[in-house]
Structure formats: structure tokens, C-alpha cells
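Researcher: Here's the sequence for the chain we discussed earlier.
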Amino acid sequence: MNRLIVLIISIFFLTQCSVGEKINPWKGGEKKIEKVKKIKRVLTNEEKIINEFNENLKLDLTNIKTNNTIVDNRNNFGAQDYEGSINKIGNYKFAKLEDINQLDFKPIFLKDGLVFFDKKGTIIRYSNNRKILWKKNFYSKSEKRLKPKLNFIIDGKNLVIADNIAKLYSLNIDSGELNWSQNGSYPYNSEIKKINNKFFVIDYKNTLKCYDLSDGKECWELKTEDSFTMANSKFSLIIIKNDVIFSNSIGDITAVDINSGLIKWQLPTQSSNILNETYNFKISKLVSDENSIYFSNNKNQFYSIDYKTGTINWINEINSNLTPIINDNFIFTVSNEGYLYVLDKIKGNIIRINYLFENYKLKIRKKIKPIGFSIGNTNLYLTNNDGKMIIVDLNSGKVIDIQKISGNLVSKPFIYNQNLFVIKNGSITQYN
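Model: Thanks. This is the structure I predict for it:
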């Protein structure tokens, strides 16, 4: 009798499994399987590519150029003057930034100090010896609870701020006194760039805004396709001659005349599946030289496009959303899996690939994710989500040191005035 009952129960469950497979109530199941397969394919391709290149190839970097300008409208062009040994000098302290996934913020570096902000949106000006010169906060109690995140740009004696709660304002850099303030329609989600008497910023709705530097009044706006969901990373924009070129949350690259706000060209780089792509999609910041724009994304695409026409010069298979750096005829980037790529910027050919995580134990390598990197005179400095900095010899591509910077998340490294800076959650640490 017991055997009969067991047999009946077994048949029942087998039948139910069969019916469940036919009904398949979990919509999108097939898409998830396809996505997994795609990821595996990307990683396999990367491994195949890596095996084709000599990681011991040395580069001729005798023509390496330095770029130490405070305001660089093209981003990450050239190495910066730094040959330090990562000796800690001190900390610029601030109240911790809460509920933050990545420290994707940049201090304003001045000849006599720097400017940053804290968890309540308080703007802090520091001296060179890391003392606070002034602190200013223009938010109400309710706005402070929203934990404003600020992006800056310096314009002479003025500091311009755009935040993630739709506030736009300007301060005098010496006194911290307010020059003007404006309320935007939507929160801002990009770096700020300026030219002449105008500045540009992008909001969460994929709208490029042009404002007057003197009073913050809107000059014009350009709406691109709305993604309906919040982007997973900041948008990027650069200025080349009379054009502002920017990215949005769905991978469109758009060139606009800075005076009229009219589109000159637009290049879609992703599928039309906007709702699905936006949250998972990450694109690097745009960088450029005299002729082309370079960027990459986490969909295994590294682009070079003509800045005048938006036509594609070349595409290579590199899975990275880190900002690349151009120097001479080389492009340096680090993939999300920890490989350092050196490319020929003209042809897009991969010159050398080096694996930077080889000193980590096998079981934790896949947990390590690059945050960002900067290039000094001879070395590359890469920070990761484990709070460590990997130091790489540029000529050989070999790891020469790994230093613990923080037990928590750190920002990409910044180089200014022959010093290196890293933002931690609660301080900016300076090294020489």
C-alpha cells in the first residue's frame, strides 16, 4: 500500500513538472538564458584576444605628453606630472557621503587648496595645508535629507554647482558668498563644461541644458530620447571648438552647436530597447584629440568616431566603462575584468594586453572591479572596489606595487600639482 502511495505521488509531481514546463509562467526566462550566454561569449572572446598578444611588449613612451590644466574640456588627454611613491601627506576631512554606490565625483583643485562637499550638500573650501577656510550650505532641512550630490566647475573667481535635486547656483570662490541660484526642472546627472560665457549640463531626462555663466539663466535646451528610468552612471560631455558633444543613458552620442542648440549629428550605439538597456548600460566618459572622440561601454564596445561627422572610425571589443586616456598615438584603458589594454588610436589595433589582477587569489578575482585610473609620468594608478590601488609601469605593463588605500570604497585617483588624491568616504587623502 505504501509503495502504491509513493508511486502515485511520484507520478503526480512528474506530471506537474511537465505541465509547468509547457505553461512557463515566468515570462522573460528565455531572455535571461540568452543574456547569460552572451556574457560568457564576451568573456571568452576577451580571453581569446588576450592570448594573441605579447604581454611582455615594451612601449616607446618618449613622446609622452603632460596635461596639467585645471579645466580640461576634453577630459583625460595626456599624462600628468606625478612620479610619487604614494607617501601619505594628510586628509581633507568631510562628513561621510551616505547611500552612495560609487564615488564618481571630482574635487575642484585650486593653486591654494581644493573644494569638495559633504553628505548634507555643504560646500567646503580647504587650504593647501588641509585647513577649512569656509563652509557654506544653501539647502533647507528637507533638502538636506535628500543628501545632495554636487558637481562643480570653476570659472575665474566663481564656482558653479549643479546637483542631483535640481539645484543650480554659483558662489564666489574666495568668500563662499552666493552669486545666483536657479531651480531646474529635473535633477542634474552629468559633469559640467564651459566655454566663453556659457556652461552645459545634462539632467536625468537626457536633456542638454545651456546656461549663462553670469546669472544662471537658461539659453536653450535640447531634449534627446527619454529613457523613463534613471541612468546607472553619469553622463559625459566634451567641448570641441564650437560643438558640445554628449552621451545619454541609452548610448546616443550627440553633437550640438553651442550657440544655436541645433543638432549637427547623432550616433545611436545601443538597441532601441530603452527600458531594458538603461539600468544595465554603463558608458565611459568621452575623451577626444584633435580629430576623434573615444569612449567605451560595458557591452563590449570601444569606439572611435569622427568628431565632425559622427561617423565610426573603428570599433574594438573591450568591455569597459572606465574613462580611457589618450597619450600621443596610444590609448590606455582597463576592462571591467582587470585587463590593461593599449591601443593604436588611429587604427584601433590592440598593441598590448596585461592582466592586472594576477596577484589576487583566484577565488576573489571576479569580485574585484576597477573604479578608475590616472596616468603619471611613468606609471598608471588604478583603484579598485576593494579599496586598493594597483601601480603599473607604463612601459612594460607590469604591476610594480599594490597599496591598501582604504577598507571601503574609493574614487578614481586624481593627479594635480605633482600630488595624487583619492576620495574616500569621509576624506580626500593626498599623496606625494
